[in-house]
Amino acid sequence: MRKALSILTTLAVLASACQQQSTTTDNSADSTGASKVAKLNVPVPAFNADSAYAYTAKQVGFGPRIPNTPAQQRCADWMISTLKQWADTVYIQRTTVDGPHKEKLPCINIIASFNPAAKQRVLLLAHWDTRPWADEDAFDKKAKLDGADDGASGVGVLMEAARQFRTQKPEAGVDILLVDVEDYGVKDNENSFCLGTQYWAKNPHIKGYKANYGILLDMVGGRGSQFYMEGSSQQYAYGPMKMFWDVANQLGYSDYFRYEKNGSYITDDHIYVNTMANIPTFDIIAWQASGNFAPHWHTQNDNMTVIDTKTLKAVGQTILQVIYNQPFSY
């Protein structure tokens, strides 16, 4: 993903405020056209952070998941075969996208659907590819990186969530979208990022696919991570985002999910889900209070040593609490 803005303009503040007001006062409408349901009184399974950690390490073990490498195919094969054991339906999108220099890049998007008959749905997504070069590294900007947090951690959390959905079926419909070729972009062209998501948004796995809202996970496993409300997420999906933050704080994860404003906007997968697929989607991504990314972002330090089960637990348990108990209470 690309850092876009760190300081809000007055116009952006006003636009965000207007959007927040509209999304919090009108609770009857959603992108599916279905009426929302009340909070569900069902037991919520315990999120297994050790399992999510193992799924994260499994991806890293394949090597950097860079397009046009054997690691890309091996990791895709593992995710597909594993999700087929759990999901009601697994869709696979294999295509070729144009990189920032018109290079042809194989792209593999994987969609695992649960409770497909449910009209009200939640979209959970993360990218699984690895940036080809550590361009923020202090020593070698052309080096490969493991992408343990930036990519693998989000997928690790969603793989564990999928395992739980198989064990205890949620009332809501859930679709897990694992997108490829997110991090191949260059800084002077923000639309060169998120190529797998752009393809999916134009070519959804089901014609006319809609979800009530989406949750993007990106860099959700780092030790001591803090998650602030990203600017575009507030504009497009403030209602469900605020609900998620409230649930996280009620569960005792206030050290992770922060209400303070740090004024940052980024170009990430959620932008294209919002603007092209028209599904309100927010981004859960680690920030520093300054508005900068974590120090290991796009460096060789993004390896398993930064991954912490406590952070994985905070994100994963909140997802399960929302999905099972109050997926549409916003």
TrEMBL record:
Residues 1-20 form the signal peptide. It comes from the Bacteria. Keywords: Acyltransferase, Signal, Transferase. Residues 109-322 form the Peptidase M28 domain. PANTHER family: GLUTAMINYL-PEPTIDE CYCLOTRANSFERASE (PTHR12283), GLUTAMINYL-PEPTIDE CYCLOTRANSFERASE-RELATED (PTHR12283:SF6). The lineage of its organism: Bacteria, Pseudomonadati, Bacteroidota, Chitinophagia, Chitinophagales. Pfam families: Peptidase_M28. This is M28 family peptidase.
